[in-house]
Amino acid sequence: MSDPEFxxxxxxxxxxxxxxxxxxxxxxxxxxxxxxxxxxxKFLGSxxxxxxxxxxxxxxxxxxxxxxxxxxxNIIMTASKGGMSKLPIWYxxxxxxxxxxxxxxxxxxxxxxxxxxxxxxxxxxxxxxxMYPSYREYRARTEGIRHxxxxxxxxxxxx
Length: 159
Description:
Layout: H1 11-34, E1 42-43, E2 46-54, E3 61-67, E4 69-71, E5 74-78, H2 89-96, E6 100-104, E7 107-115, H3 118-131, H4 134-142, E8 150-155
């Protein structure tokens, strides 16, 4: 898996990258929600959904645009943070939350989350990389630094 072409980001690159992701993410979330997912529903050709979770410390509602893969009724996402050395904050909030909401287009549903097993990850990574080839780079940049979790969101039936 190691690719010498991709090295870890510097501290300055990560600081700027985090700032940029936050600013663009807020704009994308606003446009996505205002248009029912008709605009800004893709990132470099890959599908985007809006993950809504309550902050574990602040108690505030947090909305994050994330790439996703549908597997039946399940939604698959990664805590990649663009290949940066630290997990995204939203990941910790999702792990602490009993449920989250995910908006795909106009559809909003409640989900529970679990992390994929190593066997599931082995099956899902090629599909995720087919959907968004830059995941290969992200994994190469974080190799030996951290694991990028693959998250499986299952709908919570309200019947």
